[in-house]
Automatic annotation (TrEMBL):
Official protein name in the record: Endolytic murein transglycosylase
Species assigned in the record: Salinicoccus sesuvii
Catalysis: reaction(s): a peptidoglycan chain = a peptidoglycan chain with N-acetyl-1,6-anhydromuramyl-[peptide] at the reducing end + a peptidoglycan chain with N-acetylglucosamine at the non-reducing end
Site features described as Important for catalytic activity, chain residue numbers: 260
Keyword vocabulary terms for this entry: Cell membrane, Cell wall biogenesis/degradation, Lyase, Membrane, Transmembrane, Transmembrane helix
Amino acid sequence: MSKYDDIRFSKTVSSYLSIFIIAAMAVLFILGAFFVYMYIKSGSEPLDPNSTEVKEVTIEQGASSGMIGDQLENEEIIRNGRMFELYLKLNSISDYQAGAYDLSPSMDFEQISKTLETGRVFQEVLGRLTVPEGFTIDQIATQMANQEQLSGEEDRFLELMEDESFINTLIEDYPDMLSDEILDEDVKYALEGYLYPATYDITEEEPNIENLIRRMLDATRNNTYNVFQSSDGYTITFEGETEDLSFHEFLTLSSLIEKEATSLADRSKIASVFLNRMSESPSMPLQTDPTIAYAIGEHQERILFEDLEVEDPYNTYINTGLPPGPIASPGEQSVQSTMNPSNTDFYYFLADSEGNNHFARTFEEHVENREQYINNQ
């Protein structure tokens, strides 16, 4: 072998050796990164996922991430204070709210850090229950059945809707909003209309249905009831005399508008139709089809003439005035429209096949609208 061959051989060995060293370093780096990741991951998990213990921890003004980590480790909230400090730095979390917090060993790093950032206990959202505007108690129960965290709890929910003891407890807890009117024997569900339509976060593996109901009532108080109260109640002219509607009656009227309306402008006009009818002497029946559907207890694409004769307190074709209670949960637009009805002299309205409402001042005009928009379509 010539010296040139020796040189080429040496270079080849050197190249392979360099590649081997680089590959080995890459493998070691990847393994190191993996072990660091697993170390951080294991350290960020709850100290005791099954713990029900809650401790009050006071975070002082100006406390550093290291000081907070040490404090939480000493309080036995987390496993490793240094790991928590590293977690905060890697996630660029540095804005802590000083104060007293109720923390638990069952909380992970994310929950604890977001709690310290926001100043309130952060809980992971496991699911959401959406209650659309215009939903009834029965429809809300169906929504629960279709929601993973609440599936199987719909029967418990419906039981509570008819639990006299539970309802009386709620009346005691919400004396400003819930009155004995909801206990009237003709009312189908005492809380019909009082469970605010909104989206509710579910943060518990086994949600407490009673607490969920209270959250819905809180939302109604914060939204609907406060609107009612801010205007010092609600006054109408009933059979020629001025009369104050209770919140229960106001909510009932709002629910009728919710079920009838298709647009914001129509809601205010429909409110005026109902108020105009109620102001007549003797009172004209409200004659609103959604009350028939509620009385029958099932969804129908079209109300038949025979349905109008059903003997039920909610039938506004054979009974004058408002039905015994709400027939659904009204949303913000319907509540605002009830509070601010249009000033019209309409006494009739109907909806065509496309959902557009047509209003009339007289019965003759109403018949013409029916012929044009219903019979000829």
